[in-house]
Write a structure and sequence with these properties.
mainly alpha, 2 domains, three-stranded antiparallel β-sheet, disordered N terminus, binds iron/sulfur cluster
Amino acid sequence: MSPKNSSSPDPIEQAFKLGEHWVPGIWRYMLPAALTDITMPQERRATCLDCPRAKFEGWRPDYRCCTYHPRVPNFLLGLALSDAKSEPIVKRLIKDGFLLPEGMVSSPNQWAHYLSDTAEDRFGRSLKVLCPFLEQKSGMCNLYAFRNSVCSTFFCLHDNGDKGERFWSSLQTVAQQVEMALGQWALQQLGFDVKAYMKRLDSLAKKVERASDPETGAWTPAALKVIWGKFYGRELELLRGCADLVRKHRDELWQISNTIDIQEPIKFDRAAVKVVPRKYRSEIDAEYFETGDTSPPRDIWRGFKTLAKNLWALPTGSLVFSPRARILPNPQDDDQGKAFSSCTHMVEFRSRRDAKEFEWREYIPTDKAMGLLWFSRKRKISDELIERLSGMIKQDAKQFISEWTGKKVLISASLSAVTSKSVKNEIKKRVKKNDD
Ligand code: SF4
Ligand code: SF4
């Protein structure tokens, strides 16, 4: 793709739409071009500026899921310096001691704050772990065109259920691996010895408690001097240099990322656990303690392509409505029901058929309710079924099947216990009630 000319904005700095969702401009270059041929799931329920978590679950309406410190690679921060909104924030983060040569990386104390939030169920409600790029008044992200892979692929609800979640998570893993590889490649190109940098970080392992401030979480000036080495005081120069490199080599970024052996400060990372209060250590992912070779992005990409193919593949055999799901009229007796007053029905899904509490609830319009209830009888997947379903619902029938099989509301008839007479009768009764 062609680089910037003087009169038009550089596409590397412009967010673009992948399916229905916006991703950073660098995704045009750092991931295989085939990404744009993949049909992306549409996450209609994660309505961020009218956030359901804030409306119905008590999350902070200003920060919502941005009660988190994203790991943003150096070259994205460097590119963000070209943006009037993000530039002052990046500069402030340098001044306040929140950036490392690799980019914005959580300090041990920031990590401990995050773990205490997850342990105390404060994600979305935190008073301490707040992304510095969030514009509190408007709820907008000031790093939008340069945000990292986690922020670009996170949706708190998935229209395609678990299948959709796996899709985004796999795409995030590919993109994150590329981000880490390119961040280290750029440093090396600028004469910043990455192996020596890891050793310097490891040298702080013995005094890990003194590497960051327990209250603010900022890296301490003494630690920053060691970590930045000869680039201490020249942080902006390094970030700009990294951005210039990715701009210049934009058409080679995917290939480059597959040649980089990502380095990690293993001793320092292990020591950082000491900073986490014991009662919160169970929140640490087992993966955190794993060491060894990481897969090159191209291997993760292969797995992602398979997931993407499976996401839209029609199942074979027959489908039936799950006994764990129920379709009920929307009673409009709480805030959520009232907010979805245009939806005549709701789907309730339980972890077990006879569980008292539902696991999740989704409000749906009449056509979808009828489409789902049509599966109260076993239906064989065929062209004829797609045609009949298309006449019943106001949505692409294949997409409808993918979404509801992803959410396990429609299941393979061969796996189902729904064929038991009692459940069939129960569903029939509901169909009748809804028809009335
Ligand atoms: S992804 Fe975040 S902001 Fe968007 S709806 Fe979910 S919690 Fe709210
Ligand atoms: S970078 Fe943007 S999207 Fe990501 S956590 Fe911060 S404000 Fe939210």
